[in-house]
Amino acid sequence: MLTLILIGLLGGLITAVSPCILPVLPVVFLAGGPGTGTPESGGGAAGPTGGGGRAGPTPAAEADGPDGTAHTGDTLVSPVREKKAPSAPNRRPYAVVTGLVISFSFFALLGVTLISALGLPDDILRYVGLSLLVLIGLGLIFPFVERLLERPFARIPQRQVNKEGSAFVLGVGLGLLYVPCAGPVLAAITVAGARGRLSLDIVALTVSFAVGTAIPLLLFALAGRRVSERIAAFRTRARKLRIGAGILMIVLAGALAFNVTDAIQRALPNYTAAAQRKVEDNDTARQKLSGLYDNSNKELSRCEDGVNELRSCGTAPAIEGISKWLNTPGGAPVDLKAQRGKVVLIDFWTYSCINCQRSIPHIKAWDRAYKAAGLEVIGVHAPEFAFEKNAANVADQTRKMGITYPVALDNKLTTWDNYRNRFWPAKYLIDARGTVRYFTFGEGKYDQTENLIRDLLKQADPGVRLPQRTRQKADDLTQDRTPETYLSNFRIRNYVGDPLADDKAKTYHFPADIPVNGVALDGTWTAGYEYFTAGPDARIALNYRAKNANVVLAGDGSVQVSVNGGPTRTVEVHGTPTLHELVSTAKARNARLELRLSPGVRAYSFTFG
Questions:
Q1: CA–CA separation, 364 and 458 (whole Å)
Q2: What CA–CA distance (Å, rounded) separates 280 from 5?
Q3: Is the dihedral of CA 494, 499, 504, 507 positive or negative?
Q4: Count of CB atoms within 10 A of residue 400's CB?
Q5: Fewer Cβ close by (within 10 Å): the C or N end of the chain?
Q6: Which residues pair with 441 in a beta bridge?
Q7: How far apart are CA 494 and CA 545, in angstroms?
């Protein structure tokens, strides 16, 4: 657990200084300023007299003069100096951060369950957070609104605590808006929360991540408090500054609601990416985070992926939660226990993944070569996109790829979680006694994997006669090959051009220059979460480096393809999402790829080989 806490804490620290948090920094900074709870000047109590008064106790003052002197009847007793009540410390920064930690932790773990149980829209929490931000802004402009926000805290005995109620509400709102800003750590937390399988480890990871994000934000809020206390303008023009801060918060809420801040985030370099990979995606973190909430598969943590030797990684978890089986008699499920005595290869894949497609020829070759010797291959199709959950789509693509071994449709990712998996493709080798002996993530290591298959087959049957090695030639992968490019307003990278408008039609224009690996739009497009939909005069351009380029398309229409300004082919699109090859050359090269799409055609992603 200590390792998980450290991973969560460091992951939170990195997230809090990443570009995704920049839009809410002004709110955090302003949160450190004074609230409405600043003690007001009041009349002081009359104390013992001195100077010109008569010796002995003074009668109680009946009235105060305009100059602060006290009178007893008609007799001037003595001047009374007004005493101001001591100012209570400004704890607004701490209230904001406390609200953020509680809000983030609670809704990250239980938000999906509550939304599902109540039948609420998926994005309800985001709009609640935006509404709270608007209310806080109104509270800064109109004090009676802030008093309403503080009213739920009025019964708390400590006077200062209930005065910071609006700051706590602000923190709750920020926690809701802050949920999307994270990497693999938050992915593990979110999946666990979605499954409703909470454990002490998950809670510890969540709280440590929230605390990690809170530390830099607290420092920023304390800096805001310091500025408000030190700069005279904050004291002499407090009312005007509060109104300005309120207006800024309302404007920021509108900017977040309409994703105006996305353009700022895309323009900034991802300066925390390297640090995030080191903390959240190293070997230790991968083993700890994957399958975290399932206690039945912790033995898989014994093994490191891709090691060139057979190890004992625990009993193979069950293949379960499968919505449908393909390539089995009558669609019957495959029981791993019934495969004892055979060597089993489990391949996690998804049909639109180019990395999986490059891996599958090796899987098919092993199935043909070693099936008679006792190898059983099982494909577990774990969807990355929603359209990949459609059984008809998977069956069609399985047939086109020539896959004849059993394929399990793991639409709920139950088996994926059982194996602590986080990668497409991923291969697991199980020996004849049902023990996981080896696994490898991603492409490559085909010769190594085949050698270990042969070793396991010999262990299962020392007298087995094995065929020659398949010697499938691996692709000549280059480190600078253009990575897979998702056409998603949430996942797109290296986009250049006009800011994307989420889920509504907008006319775009190609920029003057598109960098290598960059992608740009022209004409009318609707940018959605899973795909971009072409409108009138829709074009898309990429500058890529690879031997071949592919695109996943759906709908009905045609796509005209040109490379370096010259037309090459026309792709006809009909029906469900399908991968189409656009360009194929003998050697990798730099080129500009441009597509002109018919209105209504949907583009999901580009892949390169």
A1: 20
A2: 12
A3: negative
A4: 11
A5: N
A6: 426
A7: 14
Q: How far, in Å, CA of 96 to CA of 170, rounded?
A: 6
- Whole-Å CA distances, 371 to 345, 367, 451, 458: 11, 5, 15, 13
CA 48 to chain CA centroid, nearest Å: 66
How far does CA 359 lie from the centroid of its chain?
A: 27
Q: Which of 376, 378, 374, 377 is nearest to 458 (CA)?
A: 374
CA-CA distance, 185 to 17, in Å (whole number)?
A: 15
Q: Check: CB of residue 418 under 8 Å from CB of residue 291.
A: yes
Q: Which residue bears the tokens 């001037």?
A: 76
Q: Mean pLDDT in runs of 10 for the chain (609 residues)?
A: 77 71 70 49 36 39 41 42 53 81 77 66 67 77 73 52 63 65 54 61 81 83 78 67 78 70 52 57 58 59 75 87 92 90 92 79 91 93 75 87 92 82 84 90 84 91 86 50 81 85 92 90 90 94 89 91 90 86 86 93 87
Residue written as tokens 């394929």? Answer: 407
**Token output for 60:** 């109680």
Alpha carbon 372 to its chain centroid, in Å, reads 45
DSSP secondary structure letter of residue 499: P
**Alpha-carbon distance values, 426 to 148, 245, 320, 422, 440 (Å):** 55, 51, 17, 8, 6
SS3 589: strand
Please identify which residue in the block is written with the tokens 């300004």: 565
Q: Which residues contact 257 (CB under 8 A, 6 or more apart)?
A: 127, 130
Query: Which whole-number Å values give the CA distances from 108 to 103, 113, 181, 278, 494, in the listed order?
Result: 8, 10, 12, 23, 29
- At residue 205, what is the residue type? L
Tokens at 367, concatenated:
């199935």
User: So what's the pLDDT on residue 34?
Assistant: 53
Are the C-beta atoms of residues 393 and 577 closer than 8 Å to each other? yes
For residue 116, give both structure tokens. 């599902």
User: At CA 353, angle to CA 11 and CA 288, rounded to 5?
Assistant: 30
Q: Give the span between the Cα atoms of 193 and 145, in whole angstroms.
A: 34
Q: What is the dihedral of CA 254, 255, 257, 263, to 10 degrees?
A: 170
What tokens were used for 38? Answer: 């600043």
Tell me if the pTM is above 0.85: no
Q: Are 554 and 602 in contact (CB under 8 A)?
A: yes
Q: Where are the alpha helices (DSSP H) in 151-199?
A: 159-163, 165-178, 184-195
Number of residues that this document lists for the chain? 609
- Per residue, the 3-state secondary structure of 370-390, as one string, reads HCCCCEEEEEEECCCCHHHHC
In angstroms, the CA 383 to CA 269 distance is: 30
Structure-block tokens of residue 458: 């010999």
